[in-house]
Amino acid sequence: MTSPRRVTPEPFVWLMFSAGGVVAALILPVLLVLFGVAIPLGWVEAPDHAHLLAVLRHPLTRLALFGVCALALVHAAHRLRFTVEHTFRLGRYDPAIATVTYGAAAAGAAAAAYLLLTAFG
Amino acid sequence: MDQITLRVARYRPDDEETEPVLVDYDVPLRPDWAVLDGLNYIKDELDGTLSYRWSCRMGICGSCGMMVDGEPKLTCATFLVDLAPGPVRIEPLANFPVIRDLIVDLTDFMHKLSSVKPWLIRQDEQPVEDGEYLQTPAQLDEFKQFSMCINCMLCYAACPVYGLDGSFVGPAAIALAHRYDLDSRDEGDRQRLTILAQPDGVWDCTFVGECSTACPKGVDPAGAIQQAKLAAAQEAMKSLLLPWRSR
Amino acid sequence: MISPLEARYYRRRMPLLWWAHRRSYAIFVLRELSSAFVALFIVELLLLVRATARGPAAYESFLDTMAHPAMIVLNLIALAFVLLHAITFANLTPRAMIVRLRGRRVPSRVVLAGVYAGWLLVTAFLAWLLVAA
Ligand code: SF4
Ligand code: FES
């Protein structure tokens, strides 16, 4: 509350954090139940390769997947930043912690973009 | 008559005490006695040097907040029978500096409260002869919940973020800012949002939600903070996309 | 500037393990930790995409890895945390956001019902797209 108006990236990070929380809540549970539990345990038959490839190849799927990955990673980075700072009383190292967490999210998002753009030829 | 032990934190810097000590006092356990009545009994009958704040005894003035068995409570609204058999631990409100015994320093909270301008801001003040600013019941309902705050600071005592970082504006101040932002008679939204959008404003909050649990008046400061975040983020987006619009 | 009076104040500090002192704080920290499992599963998801793109053999071997008992245990833990995230996030939505329809405020219970309905819809669509279609 020192200077009257400082520019801060917090509002934009927070918007991405919230959007990431929403997409993670909406789509991760079903994907995790399917690929993490139901298919490995044989409750549900795995989608055959050709079908899954066709779904993933569609530009809309890839665009959506990129959005989901990038936003969910920012969501995780934001929460972990505060979790680390608050649970271990490390608030004074915020600049370093924020750089590491958001940096990791940005790297993950870049990797996702690279994969989704190039892997399908 | 039944008795209950109050284990009261005493801090007497005049007596060269460097940290608080817990002292036990036995007080009568009466069905109609609140913790505050027990403290008054101690002060009147057992030890007149005990210091604490209180005034209305009916949950209105907000001055009797203390930690009762580790929870922030209004001592005039917390009954001894509900805490029996005791002993009941009574300490000054958490997260604030202690002046003596059960009295904490309010200065920080008072500064924060006024920093968010919790009053009606008008572009042009309407002359008195034009009468009052009218408001419909529906417009009142928009903010009524947030106007119930009695500034008791229980929410600050419950908030780990404020405890960890004293520069955080904190629950009640943001809830009150939001109360005026939602008021149809007010035109100060952008001024207040500019203040709340500072790094020590709304962004520190991680929605622990304990402030709303602690509030004795049914205010939901945690909800208000998220709503203020959304409003501040929308403002920030607008000034990014439409830079000519911002002053 | 600190006055002589203020110098005598007793200042408490949050204990290092403050979140272990209260149940509600501990649950809060668990809720925040759910995000680590969100990130973990995003990585798994990208590995699935990569394996699928590389062809049927890579896809089969990805499925085999996921069927390893240790992976199943890890994913069950991840699922518990992801569900904790989904439920807490959904339940906090009506408090964080005021929804208006035609100028009228939509009651929280209706907003919450809408959130869960949307969740069911998305879940059903994805399940259909991946395994039923
Ligand atoms: S919001 Fe509630 S707990 Fe906080 S100061 Fe106001 S009345 Fe007290
Ligand atoms: S004495 Fe006034 S609120 Fe308790």
From TrEMBL, chain A:
The keyword Transmembrane applies. The keyword Hydrolase does not apply. It comes from the Bacteria. The chain crosses the membrane at residues 12-39, 59-77, 97-117. Pfam families: Fumarate_red_D. InterPro entries: Fumarate_red_D, SQR/QFR_C/D. Gene3D superfamilies: Fumarate reductase/succinate dehydrogenase, transmembrane subunit. One of its GO terms (biological process) is fumarate metabolic process. One of its GO terms (cellular component) is membrane. Keywords: Cell membrane, Membrane, Transmembrane, Transmembrane helix. This is Fumarate reductase subunit D. It comes from Actinoplanes aureus.
TrEMBL record, chain B:
SUPFAM superfamilies: 2Fe-2S ferredoxin-like (SSF54292), alpha-helical ferredoxin (SSF46548). It holds the Pfam family Fer2_3. Keywords: 2Fe-2S, 3Fe-4S, 4Fe-4S, Iron, Iron-sulfur, Metal-binding, Oxidoreductase, Tricarboxylic acid cycle. The keyword Acyltransferase does not apply. Pathway: Carbohydrate metabolism; tricarboxylic acid cycle. Its cofactor is [3Fe-4S] cluster; [2Fe-2S] cluster; [4Fe-4S] cluster. GO terms for molecular function: 2 iron, 2 sulfur cluster binding; 3 iron, 4 sulfur cluster binding; 4 iron, 4 sulfur cluster binding; electron transfer activity; metal ion binding; succinate dehydrogenase (quinone) activity. GO terms for biological process: respiratory electron transport chain; tricarboxylic acid cycle. It is an enzyme of class 1 (oxidoreductase). This is succinate dehydrogenase. It comes from Actinoplanes aureus.
From TrEMBL, chain C:
InterPro entries: Fumarate_red_C (IPR003510), SQR/QFR_C/D (IPR034804). This is Fumarate reductase subunit C. Gene3D superfamilies: Fumarate reductase/succinate dehydrogenase, transmembrane subunit. Keywords: Cell membrane, Membrane, Transmembrane, Transmembrane helix. GO terms for cellular component: membrane. It comes from Actinoplanes aureus. It comes from the Bacteria. Pfam families: Fumarate_red_C. The chain crosses the membrane at residues 25-49, 69-90, 110-131.
